[in-house]
Amino acid sequence: MRPANRRTLLFLCLAWLFLPGESVRAEPASKDRFHIYLLLYRGITEAERGFMDALAERGLDVKFSLRDSGEDPRRLPGFIEEVRSVRPDLIYTFGTTVTRAVMGLEGYPGIRDIPVVFAIVADPVGAGLVPSLAGSGGNLTGVSHLVPLTSQLAALGSLVRVRRLGVIYNPSEANSRLLVDQLATLAASEGFELIRAPVELDRPGTEIPETIPTLLGPLAGEKVDALYLPSDSFVISHAADIVRQAHAAGIPTFSATETPIRQDHAFMGLVSRYYSVGQFAAYKAEQILLQRREPGSLPVETLNRFSLVINLRAARTLGIFPPVAMFRFAEIVEPLRSSR
Q1: Rounded to an integer, what distance in angstroms lies between the CA atom of residue 164 and that of residue 192?
Q2: Which CATH number fits domain 149-271+306-333: 3.40.50.2300, 3.20.20.140, 3.30.1330.60, 3.30.70.2750?
Q3: Tens digit of pLDDT for each residue in 259-312?
């Protein structure tokens, strides 16, 4: 190589190293340099799209292997054994149920020697995944999506006076049980009554969707002022039916996640965007894969900003309209029904 070419190459390398806002990292050497297993619970969501898009934008060459339990936890042990034999560079997990299974908290051996990054876990400490949000000290880190309950209820209270709050949830999902317990504690301190409506389970512990109408009838009879839809895979998957029947009974719905508002016409929610949570999880994956950071040294975090989302179609159905001042900071949507 001629001296001029060497000087040009050196200048380009130095310029790249000191580009503002970029972390110093090595470029992947081959197309399949990194292998990531995505273990999912209810198919690809916006969180996974954000995760994969962010890694691609950062220039990582990644081979993704996807396994979806289809909301059946009994499929998870087989996926875990497969991952154990393949030994990818990193495991991405969606939700509390999958993450607890991967970490060995559901009665069978977990994986402790491959980095794990989770997303969409409501209460990582309460679920026993990490001792504190400062870090797991092991092979796990991730991003929680749940907005503090006090903030959620304050947002709901800005449009609906809540004296009795109903909640439909799947008692077989650990995150849902934890959330309802937290709601009960908050109800005691804030002076409202919590009306629980757990989904009926069959003997193997599988939820029965046909029982949804039998849950909404008693909630209407209890004259609840609003229905809370938790970050619960069963509730999210059946949100269209739940929301339609609740609104027909004049009960406003408040969702802890964005999909029921955008796609199923739930009334409102203060949420973390799934796509942004996935992007944040990708940043943690990059720290592990490229910067060689130990997962247990990385804090478990949430987003810094939340979105107040109000469905205008639901507002018209319920006859509850946000004040004009709220239009300045809330996202007002009127989506068409679409596939997940």
Answers
A1: 6
A2: 3.40.50.2300
A3: 999 999 999 999 999 999 999 999 999 999 999 999 999 999 999 999 999 999
